[in-house]
Amino acid sequence: MKYNGSFNIFLKDDKYNIQSFLKYHPGGVNYLAPYEEKDVLDRMKNTDHSKAAYYLLEEYKSDGARLDSGRDLEKLVNWKEPMLCQVGALGKQYKDWVNAPVDRELRLFGNEILEKLTITPWYLVPLIWIPVICYLIKHGTEKYEEITQDSSTTSIAFYLLLGVILWTLLEYSLHRWLFHIEPSGNFKLMIYIHFAIHGLHHKVPFDTRRLVFPPFPAAIIALVIYRIMLFIVPESISVLLLAGTLLGYVSYDMLHYYLHYGAPKENSYFYNLKRYHNQHHFAHHDSGFGISSIIWDEIFGTAIKLKHLNMNIRW
Fold first, then answer.
1. Which residues fall within 8 angstroms of residue 92, CB to CB, at 6 or more apart?
2. Gene3D superfamilies from the entry (predicted)?
3. Is 115 exposed, middle or buried (0-12, 13-18, 19+ CB in 10 A)?
4. Looking at the whole model, is its pTM more than 0.85?
5. What is the mean pLDDT of the chain?
6. Which of 34, 80, 129, 140 could bridge to 239 as Cys pair (CB 3.0-4.6 Å)?
């Protein structure tokens, strides 16, 4: 289904051109198609669209300009200036602002070098980390065989798989208890940290430059994890576990990118994950923390129950 130039809908007396949003809409193009040039107010109410959905819709107003004057939250910041230095001043209004998504590109730092370090094209993640993983597997295998005299590939595969499973728990834990920690309105440093590591993704979920984790902070986290592993298991096993954990991380980052911009086939594993992650972004910020798997959400009681649909979504 192709729409060139415009796809207009109406909300009361206001007109919106959502053509650029069609590929992102959680409900898919086929749910939107019948409403071209029609009023969607009743439909949005009947399907319990979130407050975030109504807020995001204002981005596509057809008067040629975003009416931030009508949205008090966006009046609190200057989108023409670096954002990180501004968010601390939002105080208690930060939570409402960061969970009100907009379709824009965001500049984090004024310094050009720091800004470039925060912008990561998706292909940079496997380009950097796959060679590192291969080296760690080779080095870890040699160390393991040297110390244990066990050259069984089953043992090596076991520790790599254990590392991947460890990553799924880390993914859930970091997302829930670090990335979604609620900063105090009076503690500016926590607001800065929260926004830099994850808040910006919820504010500008369609900014393709900020969807995967930058290599530099990822390397710091990997080093910390490795140091912790060394206190628990021998070096040879730690290296293999780290390789598996990094393999899980790379898979997660690529999957996260795909869940935002890919078009999974109906009723596939990725199809349900995309629906699930969309619900986390636009309706349930305090649940649905799993991305590559929902198993830890099920275990810890934070799973999102997806609604039954009358027809499958086509993105």
1. 185
2. Cytochrome b5-like heme/steroid binding domain
3. middle
4. yes
5. 91
6. 140
Query: Binding site for heme: what residues are annotated?
Result: 25, 49
Binding residues, as ranges, are: 25, 49, 175, 180, 198, 201-202, 256, 260, 277, 280-281
Domain membership of residue 103 (yes or no) is no
DSSP 161-221: HHHHHHHHHHHHHIIIIIIT----TT-HHHHHHHIIIIIHHHHSTT-GGGSS--HHHHHHH
Helix (H) or strand (E) holding 15: strand 14-17
Q: What is the pLDDT of residues 110-164, one digit of tens each?
A: 999 999 989 999 999 999 999 999 999 999 999 999 888 877 889 999 999 999 9
* Binding residue numbers for Zn(2+): 175, 180, 198, 201-202, 256, 260, 277, 280-281
Greatest Cα pair distance, the chain, in angstroms, is: 76
3-state secondary structure of 8: strand
Range of the domain at 247: 114-300
What per-residue confidence (pLDDT) applies to 64?
53
Question: What is the rounded CA–CA span in Å between residue 250 and residue 3?
Answer: 34
Residue 71 pLDDT class (50, 70, 90 cuts): low
